């Protein structure tokens, strides 16, 4: 290569570098859009049937003392709990009227919370609005107006799309039994696992305001299994010798372990228990695992299970430390009698969680949740001195934050607001 060629090549290289630098400076790589996180906290301000309360969006996971009824808080009804899914906030009661159904709350980038769309149903039958979501465009819910069917809806549009008529499934048993006054499917329990929809079948001895709750005719709990791809009924399975699967509020009373096993609460024969259990359906199975169950009668006479959280082979739940009582002076809801336990699923060894007081019944709220990799326990004492979430490490918990204004804590969830 002669000197001219070398010089020409050098000039071309310098020009190319200059153009590259210039273009790089003129066209910087656009930043990755990560969205803005909001931590939404809900509280119930009064122990009333319409469950008034507040919702507030925080920019960070709350800590210390928290005011949940500030100028940016949303006030409404039906705040005993909620049922968030993925990146969305759902609950089973209207914030305006406390009517039964499915409501979505939305949060904007400034943290303003609003009541968005609402799917209404029969407002006279408890359980209306019990729902489960399959994916972004498919969900299922129960409407007391058609108790022998499961309604379908589109979560993206929050619109009803049809129904699955399961009359024949319900009538497989008890069709001509005069003592059975009310029948339903999916009123208290709807879950999706492995492409199957699981729906409880109710056979009730009453037909009044609380029909379907603590009034089972049969000694076993029945669950219909429906294939979601074909929308065809497959079979009915049963949980033996118990009653009252789940309940009628946002606390769905079931959870999936890390390995996909499904754990289900049955409250038992009455409002104060008796044969209450936690049972499971293994990840690859569609039947109740008859080799495993937690029986409250073996732990606390006169007690029952009311919530369940499962992770990494352990169950977190609350267990009453005395027999439950109901009525105006009963201890079941607002006395500090519920203790947190961690239970090994493999051998059922239970350990009382330390560093945390006895609490009131979580009711419609979940007793334990997970946010940012932290397991958080909902803590509320009768005198209100402890009212927030504790962070669990091993079998010890410590206070993360305490709500000082806005009512008793009933939910916390993280959403990401897209840019």
Q: Which regions have little confidence, pLDDT < 50, spanning 5+ residues?
A: 1-27
Overall pLDDT metric: 93
Q: Bin the helical content.
A: under 10%
H/E series: HEEEEEEEEEEEHEEEEEEEEEEEEEEEEE
Signal peptide: 1-23
Keywords: Signal
Protein name: DUF4374 domain-containing protein
What tags apply to this protein structure?
7% helix; 4-stranded antiparallel sheet; disordered N terminus; globular; 419 residues; Methylamine Dehydrogenase, Chain H; mainly beta
Provide a quick synopsis of the model.
The strands form 7 sheets. This protein has a 5-stranded mixed sheet, with no helix packed on it. Strands 4-2-1-28 form a 4-stranded antiparallel sheet, with no helix packed on it. Strands 8-9-10-11 form a 4-stranded antiparallel sheet, with no helix packed on it. Residues 1-27 have low confidence and may be disordered.
């Amino acid at each position: 290569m002669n000197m001219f060629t070398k010089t020409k090549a050098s000039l071309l290289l310098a020009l190319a570098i200059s153009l590259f630098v210039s273009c790089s400076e003129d066209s910087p790589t656009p930043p990755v859009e990560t969205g803005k996180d909001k931590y939404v906290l809900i509280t119930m301000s009064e122990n009333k049937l319409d469950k008034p309360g507040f919702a507030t969006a925080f920019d960070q996971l709350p800590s210390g003392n928290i005011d949940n009824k500030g100028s940016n808080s949303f006030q409404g009804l039906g705040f005993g709990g909620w049922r968030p899914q993925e990146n969305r906030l759902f609950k089973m009661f209207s914030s305006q009227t406390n009517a039964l159904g499915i409501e979505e709350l939305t949060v904007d980038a400034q943290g303003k919370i609003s009541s968005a769309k609402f799917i209404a149903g029969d407002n006279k039958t408890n359980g209306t609005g019990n729902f489960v979501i399959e994916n972004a465009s498919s969900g299922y819910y129960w409407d007391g107006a058609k108790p022998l069917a499961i309604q379908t809806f589109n979560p993206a549009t929050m619109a009803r799309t049809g129904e699955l008529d399961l009359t024949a499934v319900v009538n497989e048993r008890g069709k001509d039994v005069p003592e059975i006054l009310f029948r339903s499917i999916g009123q208290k329990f709807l879950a999706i696992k492995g492409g199957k929809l699981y729906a409880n079948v109710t056979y009730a001895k009453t037909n009044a305001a609380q029909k379907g709750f603590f009034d089972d005719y049969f000694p076993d709990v029945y669950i219909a299994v429906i294939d979601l791809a074909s929308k065809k009924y497959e079979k009915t399975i049963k949980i033996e010798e118990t009653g009252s699967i789940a309940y009628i509020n946002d606390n769905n009373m079931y959870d999936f372990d890390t390995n996909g096993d499904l754990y289900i609460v049955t409250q038992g024969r009455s409002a104060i228990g008796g044969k209450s259990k936690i049972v499971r359906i293994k990840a690859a199975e569609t039947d109740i695992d008859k080799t495993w169950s937690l029986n409250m009668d073996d732990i606390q006479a006169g007690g029952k299970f009311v919530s369940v959280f499962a992770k990494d082979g352990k169950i977190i739940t609350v267990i009453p430390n005395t027999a439950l009582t109901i009525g105006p002076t009963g201890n079941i809801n607002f006395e500090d009698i519920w203790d947190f336990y961690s239970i090994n699923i493999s051998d059922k060894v239970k350990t009382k969680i330390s560093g945390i007081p006895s609490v009131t019944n979580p009711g419609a709220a979940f007793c334990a949740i997970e946010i940012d990799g932290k397991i958080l326990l909902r803590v509320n004492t009768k005198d209100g001195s402890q009212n927030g979430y504790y962070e669990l490490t091993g079998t010890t918990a410590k206070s993360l934050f305490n709500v000082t204004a806005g009512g008793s804590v009933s939910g916390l969830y993280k959403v990401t607001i897209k840019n």
